[in-house]
Write a structure and sequence with these properties.
By secondary structure, the chain is mostly beta strands. It contains one helix and 21 strands.
Length: 258
């Protein structure tokens, strides 16, 4: 075979191999962002570790396919990109992402839901939602809520005032007020409000009770009479329009305190 033909063939093979290698290298990454339910600053020296795992076998340890460590992460969300070897990925396997945020070996945040990628029709990129492992989650936004009532139509009187108290009732003998506030210019039901958040801590592991009283004409007119009706769930500080503090009030004349 003429030398020039052999040389051309080798050039073609080399070009094809280079092209395939570039395609593989550019495509064999998984990317996304590690996110908390709100933007949050991280302590100095925080490390974010995101791992790509084969979690197919329920009775065996997950197999690590790739990982990235982001040193000195300043805040969440934070972007990540993980390189992996496509040859190690079985199309029938369950491939998922795991994220951890630590500082000085102490775990601060971790994902508690599955984030599948690559196989089973799942995308190559995915954000990873993490939760705080701390019992308390410091609020950085006002706690929003709504008070409803089906016993009043139209606007409330001009002198109407609403008093709100959020109690921690996890230990009945040591219940205490977490935050309280008073509101006027109420308008009509539903009444939207925002509780102060400075220094307020709420926990995923504790129980809360929301008291709401509405006064006008010099008397208490509406309240939540039954303690069981005052229970509210605060897994963390609510975001945006996700109003987690919602209760109904009832006229004192028809529903006296129990």
């Amino acid at each position: 075979m003429p030398r020039v033909v052999v040389h051309a063939i080798w050039l073609a093979i080399l070009a094809a191999a280079t092209s395939a290698g570039l395609a593989c290298g550019s495509g064999d990454t998984v990317s996304g962002e590690v996110r908390f339910h709100r933007e949050v600053d991280l302590p100095d020296g925080a490390t974010v570790t995101v791992t790509l795992l084969d979690t197919s076998l329920a009775d065996a340890s997950a197999v690590e396919l790739g990982a990235v460590v982001i040193e000195d992460a300043e805040s969440l969300p934070v972007a990540f990109s993980i390189e992996y070897d496509a040859a190690e990925v079985d199309s029938r396997a369950e491939i998922t992402l795991q994220a951890r945020v630590e500082v000085d070996g102490e775990l601060l945040y971790i994902n508690d839901t599955v984030h599948p990628v690559l196989t089973g029709g799942h995308p190559r990129s995915s954000d990873v939602q993490v939760i705080s492992v701390s019992e308390f989650d410091q609020c950085v936004e006002p706690l929003p809520g709504q008070i409803h009532s089906s016993f009043w139509e139209g606007d409330l009187p001009d002198d109407a005032v609403m008093e709100i108290r959020l109690w921690d009732v996890s230990e009945p003998e040591q219940r205490f007020v977490v935050v309280e506030a008073s509101f006027d210019s109420l308008g009509s039901f539903p009444i939207e409000f925002e509780l102060p958040h400075e220094g307020v801590e709420v926990s995923r592991h504790r129980r809360y009770e929301l008291e709401a009283d509405i006064w006008f004409d010099g008397e208490l007119q509406f309240h939540i009479p039954n303690p069981e009706w005052r229970r509210t769930i605060l897994p963390y500080c609510p975001d945006g329009d996700d109003l987690s503090i919602v209760n109904d009030v009832f006229p004192v004349s028809e529903f006296p305190a129990e």
